[in-house]
Queue: 2 jobs
Job 1
Amino acid sequence: MGFKLDMEKNKEKIKEFMDFIDDNRNKPGILMPVLQEAQEKFGYLPEEILELISKELKIPLAEIYGVATFYSQFTFVPKGENNISVCLGTACYVKGAEKILEELENILDIKSGETTSDLKFSITPTRCLGACRQAPVINVKDETYGKLKPEDIKEIIEKYDKEVLQDDNIR
Amino acid sequence: MITLDKLREIKERTRPVLEERLKNEGKAEIREDGTIALKGDYYKNQLRIALRNCEIIRPDSIEEYIALDGYSALAKVLFEMTPEEVIEAMEKSNLRGRGGAGFPTGKKWREAFKYDSDKKYIICNADEGDPGAFMDRSILEGDPHSVIEGMAIAGYAVGADEGYIYVRAEYPMAVRSLKIAIEQAREYGLLGKNIFGTDFSFDIELRLGAGAFVCGEATALIESIEGKRGMPRVKIHRTAHKGLWGKPTIINNVETLANVPVIYQKGAEWFKNIGTEKSSGTKVFSLVGKVKNPGLVEVPMGMTLREIIFDIGGGGIDGRRIKAVQTGGPSGGCIPLELFDTPVDFESLSRIGSIMGSGGMVVMDETDCMVDIARFFLEFTVDESCGKCVPCREGTKRMLEILEKITSGNGEESDIERLESLADTISSASLCGLGQTAPNPVISTLRYFRDEYIAHIRDKKCPAGVCKALFEYFITESCIGCTKCARNCPVSCISGKVKERHVIDANRCIKCGTCKEVCPVGAVVTR
């Protein structure tokens, strides 16, 4: 899908990932945990890594894709640095989650499920985040923002936009 | 290795420390009988069994759990009861599965017990997928040891030495809390080989879901643990007979397991006397949506919806009239205000066309359109159908299309009939609970709110003002001409002079509702 994993740059990560496979190789039903570890490490499921898993676990690539495409949490394209999960559970829905989502789409100029071209933000629609008391909620990185109104969104985005900028300066 | 003496010693040492901390924090009170309860009106009418330790103990402290009699039930069954006696007590307590279906837990255990097998498994279903329900999350985050102890007791009863907890990946805090708890239990010898020095061994592995709602279904969950696509199996055998890797497997829900230790601490008789005759014990509800005091409510079964929503939940918000409550998530139905005197138990709710489900209660008021709510749930099931059964895969999609047609103002009278016929086929010809119950939100809204469907179809109006194609914003005579709406309109479609009545150009209006929100005199209405 156009994303190539730089094997040289990710050498260290790949080695760590191989260690994970080695430690768990003989556990039954280990495919899902291995895929989850891969996504955690690389941010998405790179083709190159899926081929590696296939070889190591002796599971046909077709079967691996079958599993990976079934579950909505697995992604084949990298997510933005700040992934914004928008809760679309019932409680959030009746409290106006759609308007929150619309506002996010407007400000970031991407559709739900997409990533901005600078890879800074992505919007992931999510089933209930289990924070219904705070409805409507969104999650940015590990931070939850609750009882939101559309006009709160701009400030939240700006906060993370700045963080990204600062990080860039440090680099 | 832990011994009974050591357990007692930890309890005696930690209890005063815990009491001291609670006293300083001031949010809980210690009652005369030694029980500890949270203070405040919200908790006054609640009876917390599954949530007994939540917000009272520190979830990362196994010693505080032990201080409140934690792991004493496990010790009791290991030293004083045979596995058969454990099962008998469970049957007598009449605990029924809290995940939704309400299957008697004791009966499930008995079934797995009777099969001879070299290996058996206990699975905790922590794949809490119903949107609007978060009781399992709260138990996992607030009192993880109660689930671990419940699983170990189940393991002893049926003869299993291995357990899995299948938890949603969307709950990172719960995952963390479980990891810590499992590690601690191992460290204290409450999981692992020869627990309390007996020949009973039991250990637990954590498995994470990956965002598939259908994996809350028992056989789909098993497939997922086995590393496959989470698609339900054809149910030739019960999972208690042939489950995970073809071995006898017990799958219990988080809240069910959290109830288990208390039943052995206080006795099956005590538990059976709480609630109604057929639905014993308490149930945790997550009361959310358009209600004044949203939160988790644990009450004896049989309490009426009215008591839960108005007495504990405080009624509606902003003075608006409550119209309905949705129970049971995408498998449940919408119950109208007229039926709020229905007692909440498994049988009563199914009689009025909804289900208990996992205990989600989403309150809706006059600003919620019931046709749109039905559409919302169908969108959910279309997304989450695994695709195995044609009626569910194709049928729910067709139902959604019809509902979209109605909410966009293109509905025809024959659409209602078609919805009913599709609902019948889908619910009778799908393999698993997801498909069988997928039409429920439509059936129940058609049953109780048919007039709203008719208004959409015949009058092309959305009475609640939700379906954008079916209403317009309009400025009434009470406009004072303050120009606030015109200044705030994002598409500048409002015109009018200062101190004169303004007008909205309906053709250019995007129906964002800003004018209505900013109007200081309430002159902007929908019609």
Job 2
Amino acid sequence: MSDRAGRILVVDDEPGMREGCRRILVSEGHRVTVAESGEQALGMSEKGAFDAALLDLKMPGMSGLELLARLRELDPDCVYVMVTAYATLETAVQATRGGAYDYIAKPFTPEELLSVVDKALALHWLRAEAAELRQAAERNLLLVATEQSRTRTIIQSMADGVMVTNREKMLVLYNPALLRLLGIKGKAPELGEPPAPELFPADLLAMMEEAYSEGQATMVARELRGGPPNLAANIAIIRDEAREPLGLVTVIRDITEVKGLQQRMGDFVQMVAHELRSPLGAIAQYLDVILTGVTAGSPEKERQILARCRERTGALSQLVKDLLDFSRIGHLNKVERTLAPLALEEVLQETVSFAAGPAAAKRVQVTLELLEGLPAIEADREEMRRLFTNLVDNAIKYNREGGAVRVAVGARLAGQQTDGFVAVEVSDTGIGIPRGAIERLGEAFYRVRTADTLQITGTGLGLSICKQIIEAHNGHLEIESEEGKGSTFRVLLPRSGAGAVK
Amino acid sequence: MGEAARKKILIVEDDPDTVEAVRLVLEKEGYSTVSAPNAEEGLKKVKSERPDLILLDVMMPAGTEGFHFVWTLRKDPEPGCRDTPIIVLTAIHESSPTKLYPEQSDGTYGPYEYLPVQGFFDKPVALDKLMVEVKRLLAGGKKE
């Protein structure tokens, strides 16, 4: 007894047979179509039309066997049962060879008929289910392949090197970045083999060995020796439930830039610490002198010492300010700069008037010469102020008593061709700069140390800041100097429209 | 004090304030002082002034200047100059691997560089301790 209704085709030339089968099958709930000849049956058949069919073997016109063959072409999923009058073994064999599933011999009881139809239907539906499952499996395989392909593309495109080794320590996967970073050229590493010691760095292989044997660790990370490029390896250890290593995922990163940055930061901190030590040491030493009573009874000496201490704390404050400026303008490189058409004359006039105090203290004369034909420039006002203040302050600081500072600006100076630029010259009659020192000016913290400059306090950052400002405005700095005579600092800034400013 | 007044001390140091501070202390104790801002000037002054003791800054610009002074002086042909006792004033002791005197008391040298001087002080200098050491060395004492 089938609990599912099937669509059944009955082909028989005998009307009694047709009706009889139809009634029996319909009473079981199946849907029956009858045909009285092969030709008629063929007209009714098409792919998927019927679940099972009962074909009379002996019919006038087209025989049952011929009909079987042709119906199987039209509707291959249908399950065919031959109805034979003569239950000879021969006909049964013929029928099954022809592709029929079963046969039933006349006369048959309704139960016999239903039984054979049930079996046929069961087979039909089983086959249909199998086909569906197969299709679903194929779709899934396609999905997985696409996923794998996508993942593979991702891994192939990574800038970091990736390498996977399995439980047996054999190479299972790697990407082009790995070869590039490790400098592996020519013969590519073989999958299914352990990473070859001729191709892979020894310390990396040692790290992997360590990772395979570690008890609890899930990651081993270390810098690799050698370079450039400087590399860091990050090994993730995949473990099973028993905490045994299933495999390693090794990622190689290029840390050259990071290391360079760390190095520069480290150097800078060292420099700063060094610059701080001198003034702090001197102040502490002086205070010890007073506190241990060395200068007891000499108030004038003590006043001198304290004044000197005060000067040096001033220098320390300036150092802090300069450091902040230096880091802001130079290292961060994300300064908010407002570029606007700037009237340089104004900035220079301001600078010169602010310098009046320090200049008077040394009886230095500061003059400003605005030559004709001053073209416009685009610049950040604050930075220009800072730049020229530094230069003028230096010109006074390193000057002799009663000396002079000349600030001159124009498109052409002293016959020099400065097309496309505006030139500002700050010249002094000071102690000048020794030949070898000129190249080093502008290095952070560099200060010229001669007998003449000993008493001059400064952070050594002023010129570095000037250079940074000039460079950020796409300008140039020229320095001319003669020891004992004086120096000239020439700032060239592009005119508006002459060049884009950063 | 009379004896001390005959003794002359050379201060080789580039920071003028440190020179002044040390000078004040030394002169209060009755020593006479001369100074030089760098190794080159320092070596000249050893010849011209013949100090009895040298206080040397080993942190001068170009960090090796101090060492250069010591090794050059210790090769000087005149024993009077060559053997002048030197006390090093330094702020780099903690961060430098260079040892400034032999580790073992038997005079053998440790596995690092050795600078042939008679003592060293970290800056800022503890003035009382410095004076004790100066007195001792001028009295002819050798480092134990």
